[in-house]
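Technical annex B. To support the medicinal chemistry partners, we prepared a structural model of the target in complex with nicotinamide-adenine-dinucleotide, based solely on the information shown next.
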Amino acid sequence: MRIGLIGTGRIGTFHAGVLSRHREVGSLVVADTDAARAAYVADRTGSTAAPSVDEVFSWGVDAVVIASATSAHADLIGRAARAGLPAFCEKPIALDLPGTLNAVGEVEAAGTVLQLGFMRRFDEGYGAARELVRSGRLGRLHTVRAITSDPAPPPAAYLPLSGGLYRDCLVHDFDIMRWVTGREVVEVYATGSDAGPSMFAEAGDIDTAAAVLTLDDGTLATATATRCNGAGYDVRMELAGELDQYAVGLDDRTPITSTEPKGPPACDNPWPGFLERFAPAYEAELDAFLQVVTGSLANPCDGREALHALRIAEACELSRRERRPVALAEIPGG
Ligand SMILES: NC(=O)c1ccc[n+]([C@@H]2O[C@H](COP(=O)([O-])OP(=O)(O)OC[C@H]3O[C@@H](n4cnc5c(N)ncnc54)[C@H](O)[C@@H]3O)[C@@H](O)[C@H]2O)c1
């Protein structure tokens, strides 16, 4: 298979490595608006650098993987759909709802494949949690607690193109909460703080966020995120039911220390970031995409799924701005 990869930044470089090693990928063409960056990644992965992003679409590729800055996703998704090409795209689809609805509409009108990069769906721990909820082992689920803590802020230049903490970061928690519980969010109440590094306030963003979410069966959930977790990269989910409770992401690399004399030993090798913590999941999602392209697997995460997660992020932004609970029914696209 001939694959075109667009965007060779942090995550695009990782995806280029995975694709270049994959048995189904005969050739890989990479492109970036920063041509030197694409050339560097092509050199490191034994792939070919296209002179421009346009060239990727005229190289006879079988599918495209979009890992550019979020602001370019919707346009590239549309171009892939119009070219009849299956596309894998990093989350989120777009910075806003109209852009997301438009891109999903284009893909559906073209009848092409769009798989979104919600890699937690391919993580072993989240997969086990989903099975546990379905098996009834937890009994009636009453509380879900989702945590995403980045060890350090991204570069300041990333913030204005990211869509903000809810759309960029917590959107993963919203997607995985729906996927693990099988329930829909019906209401959110969210807030945020920009008390950390000044670049967040300057970009109109927040560095820390907290939301209370009500699911359609009455289960209550919290989701928190920060860009400033000095202890390390911490992504967890706790699921508590009437019969039992379980935690995803709690292991000897979880960067949290118990204050109890008989607590577990302090972690001396915390997860440094998403690429290390989720490496197997990123590999599995691209492997799944290549199977989707060949028709041997159903799409595990299509545009509509991504739209649901984004609508929750939009509701949180509205709630934070207007300081009130927001019903998901208020957000278009449901
Ligand atoms: N699934 C995940 O866990 C995960 C993790 C990190 C990033 N992401 C997503 O991946 C995307 C990229 O994030 P990143 O951290 O790699 O950012 P980054 O800033 O490191 O890289 C983005 C790259 O895109 C390039 N670019 C910008 N506009 C472009 C265009 N129009 N065409 C081609 N290339 C263009 C930039 O030159 C840059 O090299 C974002 O949408 C982000 O939300 C997802």
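Notes passed to the chemistry partners:
The chain is about 40% helix and 20% strand.
Residues 303-322 form the longest helix (20 residues).
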